[in-house]
Amino acid sequence: MPLNRNIGGYITANPVAPAGPLQNGVADGGWTLSQQLQSISAGTWPIAGNVLQFIAVAHGTTPFITAYTWGASGFGTKFANPSTLASFASNAVTFNPTGTVVAVASGDTPNVIAYSWSSSGFGAKFANPATLPVAQGDGIAFSPSGNAIAVAHFSSPFISVYPWSGSGFGTKFANPATLPTGQGRGVAFSPAGDAVAVAHSNSPFITAYPWSGSGFGTKFANPATLPTGVATNVTFSPSSNAIAVSHFTSPCITVYPCSGSGFGTKFADPATLMNNNAKPAAAFHPAGDAIAVTGSASPYIIVYPWSGSGFGTKFADPATIPEGWGRGVSFNPLGNAIAIAMEQSPHVSAYPWSGSGFGTKYANPATLPTSIGNGVAFGII
Fold it and tell me: The whole model's pTM is what?
């Protein structure tokens, strides 16, 4: 990772203690990877050398994952496909925090696939976990320290979490004592690493647990006001003090304060809602000052300012709207770009992002994903 001149070390998935004015009172005196990247985005954490960025799209037909270099001009060269392909659609994709692994939730056995990753692209596929997720994988996430990987899947127990190391998958953690109530559709760890949440198909539609090196804790109480329909995605704010759920049925996005005690009182809905009968997705900006949600009706993506008070007035739609239903969304780690995975061709679109909102759409990649874009993720080395 690139050298950090303020501390004489590297941007890292492990908490670090910045010097001088950058110390922000984090309880253990360290900054998480998310906080380090927020500081880069804000221009308060100088780095030396080049940051290498990548973008990967999970999609519905072979090769099921397509990845590109990413730079100031947008999409770069497509990487060669992995040598070992999935056997069915990839439904979600993620990089680990250090950018050395890329993983997909897959629609058929083994339901999760992970590859080593470098500036050269895909490396060897890691061996499958000894105990596979049960049925179709639909969501995937690494813990912020990179030492665990979670998969949301369609059959009980609906969420499976494994230790992760340089050797790949470890022995599956014990299931939570209280399981989610239906198909796991999305999963996320809090950036603080102390909670894990799964979006699912049956009421209460969102289930969250404390998380530690020992695995799941006792399920948090359900929120007082539930999401209104099948939940397909969940994401935490970078400060871990809010949790957003995207779901079928208006308002299509529901956000709650969250803490060590669990869910707080639901934030008021945004004034302008997204319509959706597809697979809505949501993402916070790495600085925590914006939140994006995708949908199945034009403009297919809406971004709102975000603060401790909740949603602000939506940003203006991009001048060139995405070409179809949004099924995945991600800001890049530096916070200056946003990408959407789409049902229709070109299956992925991306835009510059700033405090003023969307910039002019980047040119499509020269080689497009081969079908429905189900998820999109940026990686950084």
Answer: 0.89
